[in-house]
Design goal:
212 residues; alpha+beta; two-stranded antiparallel ribbon; 12% strand; disordered N terminus
Length: 212
């Protein structure tokens, strides 16, 4: 995600930083040129446009404990435990993204959201209590490590349901929110709890016990 307002602020800060300093004039011009180049990337974009963005080469370690906590009975929970940690790399074909498109433009805060034009080929595995309880953070951390850029204030994250719903028309969104499961004995609607809280394999991170 790119913050246009943030880039303008960076450019302004650069001017203030160097205008009274005894710095080489060429250094100031080069610094401003970098900021203006980023600003130009954001000018005139619309949803669906292709954006040239190449993340810095980086990796993320997918820990084996997040595939399975080890507490589940494998035959019952159908969870296979990874034998070792897995290193994900944005330069390997499995997780390399070569084309990005504009997914959303927030005119209020100036943030532009990009999305991969095509799904990645790689697969990550989540399972057991640790994987279930930490899924959102794990996916967001992996996306940020592989596709973000802290130096340019670009954050990476996993797509979420709100991203999809925000781009639906009102008719489709209303149909989804009023959906009833096609079962004669069910009146459960979208967003409602299907049945009583899950009671089997009730495992959770040990820190939760301290918060009760």
């Amino acid at each position: 995600m790119l913050g246009q307002n943030g880039i303008f602020e960076k450019a302004k800060e650069t001017v203030e930083k160097y205008k009274n300093a005894e710095e080489d004039e060429g250094r100031v011009i080069n610094k401003l040129s970098e900021q203006l180049e980023e600003i130009n990337i954001l000018t005139g974009l619309k949803i669906g446009d292709t954006v040239n963005y190449e993340p810095k080469e980086n990796t993320y370690t997918w820990k084996k404990e997040y595939c399975s906590s080890g507490n589940e009975v494998v035959s019952q929970s159908n969870v296979n435990k990874l034998e070792s940690d897995v290193e994900l790399s944005n330069k390997n074909d499995e997780f390399k993204v070569i084309e990005w498109k504009v997914f959303d433009i927030n005119k209020k805060n100036g943030i532009i959201t990009l999305i991969s034009a095509n799904p990645t080929k790689g697969t990550v595995y989540l399972g057991g209590a640790q994987g279930y309880n930490n899924a959102v953070k794990l996916l967001n951390d992996a996306c940020n490590a592989l596709y973000g850029n802290n130096e340019k204030n670009i954050n990476g994250r996993n797509i979420k349901i709100e991203d999809i719903e925000n781009n639906m028309n009102s008719k489709t969104l209303n149909e989804i929110h009023n959906f009833i499961h096609p079962n004669e004995n069910s009146t459960t609607k979208y967003g409602e709890q299907v049945k009583d809280a899950f009671t089997v394999f009730k495992y959770y991170p040990s820190i939760y016990k301290k918060e009760l």
